[in-house]
Amino acid sequence: MNTFMVIKSYGRKAAKANLLAQKRICELEDFISVTKAESDVCRVNESLGNEIVLHDETFFVLDFALKTADESSGVFNPLLYPVIREWGFTTGEYRVPAKPEIERLMGFTDYRKVKLNPEKKSVALEKNMMIDLGAVGKGYAGDCALQVLRQNGIKSAVLDLGGNVQVLGKKTDGSLWKIGVKSPWGEGTAAGLEVEDMAVISSGGYERFFEKDGKRYIHIFDGRTGFPAENELAAVTVVCKTGLLGDSLSTTLFVMGLEEACAFWRNRRDFDMILLTNDRRIFYTEPLSERISLLYPFEAVSVVE
Ligand code: AMP
Ligand code: MG
Q: How confident is the model at residue 83 (pLDDT cuts 50, 70, 90)?
């Protein structure tokens, strides 16, 4: 998945369990990678409008991603790939496409036109449409890896999948895991969180970007416009029960920006979040008050209620 991953578990069977979890993640990558030839996602992207039968898991993740698109009115959009590719984020050959070109490609990103068949676990896109599960893949991989660990008798583990942290149970001494929230300003850890059985998933512009004529273009796009997200947020961390939910929401909330993200949380409340702004303020949802410690001289601290 184009990143570093660490699996750390405790107990007599840890070594074997870790290997099986690793195997599971690699297997998943073979299904959902957007660059690996023969993956489900590549087969869909080369389907020229034909119906493609998917592995159950790919179907499940795609279905979830499309529901997130619906719930966020297209802020999150797993069909942005033709646009993201044009900006060079898949090859590293970055460029700023002309606006009419982006508008043309946005014509191929209507997630409501994807046809899923739950019985056959198949999908049909229209011609020129492409999917990308990059915004949810690592989170889902974490859920699957934890399931493998659990099935192999592990009761205490921590995964770091490219900055997405997921913990199983508590530490072996019975205390809570202490997870660091990375500073988007390259200054170590911005905050600490005490958690058990939880996913702590972050998205930020600091992860991948390029600069042209003094302007920064990041790898997270506004699904409504086809332009890189550009608002007051520097990073978003979501704290919730599953990696899949956390990964989908961290990307979504980052694109929404401060106000829309807070409104979205007030409506849902099935997750918690930490928002870090470019002017070095921190916002976190009230239920995190007991778990969070601030490790950075923030300009202002606000609790979202
Ligand atoms: P994450 O690091 O989880 O925030 O996911 C970022 C990745 O998701 C990017 O590298 C793109 O492949 C993809 N992506 C970017 N913008 C969006 C969006 N608005 N909706 C869905 N996927 C996106
Ligand atoms: Mg994500």
A: very high
